[in-house]
Amino acid sequence: MFFIDFAGNRLLFAIIASLHVFINHALAIGAYPVVTLLEYRAWRKGDTGRDELAYKITFVLFIVTTTAGALTGVGIWFSASLIAPFAIGSLLRVFFWGWFIEWIVFISEVVLILIYFLTWKRMSQGAGKKAHIGIGVILSVFSWLTMAIIVGILGFMMGSGHWPQDKSFFSAFFNPIYLPQLAFRTTYAMGVAGLCVWFLLYFFTSKGSSLRAGAVRFVSKWMLLWVIPFVAACLWYWNVIPDAMAANIDVALLTQRFMHWHSNLATIMIVTIAALILVAAAGLVRPKLIQSALLLIPFVLGIWLLGHFERVREFIRKPYVIADYMYSSGVRQSELPVFQRDGILKYATYVSHHRITSENTVDAGKDVFVVACSRCHTTSGINGMVSKFSDLYGDGPWDKDAMTAFVYSMHTSRTFMPPFPGNDREAEALVAYLKSLQTQHEYIISAQNSWTVRPIDQSE
Ligand code: HEC
User: Fold this and answer.
1) Would you place residue 458 in the very low, low, confident or very high pLDDT band (cuts 50, 70, 90)?
2) Is 316 in contact with 248 (CB distance < 8 Å)?
């Protein structure tokens, strides 16, 4: 299995996925309707300056969505298949036709983006212009449809609804979280797209011009239009989150260490939303007031808000990767008793040792760590084992029995962790490996302190 130790697999995935979600929501789903509307209004008023502005903004959308947007979208597939092959396999089986349709819609979306941008100048008169605006509308619908399909799968991972009983595609797709999450993402995408278009139009208009003022007023109105639907969607979404998941929210928002910041974070979130509303209102009343540098603040806040929502969504469904079906460690709930009896290494595909002997205990323990813990932990990087166990048991040699007891009970004391999916021999090997990390870590620290560089045997 694939394992990046210094930063953790989660971080690799989080970076690719967050970038993709932001480009997809703000620039594809939200911004194409905004530019289409801008084009329509320019056409109605015969305002060629505004039409040219919409065209230039579309150029940026065209470049970013078809390069970084498409690449990160495919990147999600690559990284998910490397990190969680079993989870992605299960989702493919449940949603085969959903995904099949999604790919067709996605490819159509890319083709429509190309047509919309490349025919802008050619279709600028009379009936041609009308048809061009029509292409913009169809493109906007297709961009939204790709999300509407994927959200069925994302919602399923949080709450599988009646699917465990009837195993039907429709129960899986129209899970209880589907509509609220779709409403949340749609309203977010629309609102934040206004901000992105606002940001972009500063590059293509001159300071103090009436073109800029008019366009700023237009995007401000657009943003304000989405505020109430967005807040309503947030509340709706929050209300359908299952209780067991809501219980994870404290750790999800800020990790264990910073949980006591919680009330401050709620304040920061409310202030963020209030700041975005204020900026939109200012744009409407005094379009020349907000300068481009100042706009960076709400822009960054908007990105942060989405990134944080995604983190929380990913976290609260722990210990599952697919609700009530598969743990984040890639172990199906129904397989757990078998693994706990026979050991997980015996059945594991991506390990070097299938049997533990007295010679290979530490190496086999590493395999156990990789299959059972590495989805969420590194050895000494982010959320690393050395620092986690040092927090629990101090810097002296860790107690073997206490660690073994922790491994068996980790899912009860920390409900976001799945139960240990191995047998007694494997728990022992895992602990031996974890203890070797502590020794290795001390060795590295002492080597650093004495200013000598000595080779470290990684296999130890
Ligand atoms: C589904 C993800 C996941 C898996 C799999 C997982 N953990 Fe964790 N573990 C976490 C998270 C999240 C935390 C808390 C991090 C934080 O917020 O500080 C944590 C915390 C811990 C802590 C610190 C507990 C404390 O209260 O200070 C230890 C020790 C630990 N994990 C060991 C393990 C071991 C050993 C395994 C494998 C057998 C494992 N974990 C598997 C997610 C996971």
Assistant:
1) very low
2) yes
Residues with CB under 6 A from ligand 1: 251, 255-257, 318-319, 328-329, 372-373, 375-377, 383, 388-389, 391-392, 407, 410, 414, 416-418, 420
Q: Would you say 343 and 50 are in contact if contact means Cβ atoms under 8 Å apart?
A: no
Beta-carbon contacts of residue 223 (< 8 Å; ≥ 6 apart): 191, 194, 195, 198, 276, 280, 283
Among 373, 408, 413, say which to mutate for ligand 1: greatest number of ligand atoms within 8 Å of CB: 373
% of residues, the chain, pLDDT over 90 = 53
Q: Letter for the amino acid at 27?
A: L
- Cα 258 to averaged position of ligand 1 atoms, centre (Å): 15
Compute how many other C-beta atoms are within 10 angstroms of the C-beta atom of residue 18: 17
Q: How far is the CA of 383 from the centre of ligand 1 (A)?
A: 8
Q: What is the pLDDT of residue 2?
A: 53
Distance 203 CA to ligand 1 centre (A): 46
Length of the chain counted residue by residue: 460
Given ligand 1 and candidates 404, 417, 433, which is best to mutate, with the most ligand atoms within 8 Å of its CB?
A: 417
Residues 115-139 pLDDT 10s:
999 999 999 988 999 999 999 999 9
Residues 171, 161: contact at Cβ < 8 Å?
yes
Residue at token pair 């999604």:
102
Please state, in angstroms and rounded to a whole number, the distance separating the CA atoms of residues 245 and 416.
Answer: 9
Cα separation, 407 vs 426, in Å, equals 11
Atom index in ligand 1 nearest the CA of residue 391 equals: 27
Residue type, 138: I
Give yes or no for a cis peptide into 298 (omega within 30° of 0): no
In angstroms, rounded to a whole number, what is the distance separating the alpha carbons of residues 15 and 415? 25
The letter for the amino acid at 56 is K
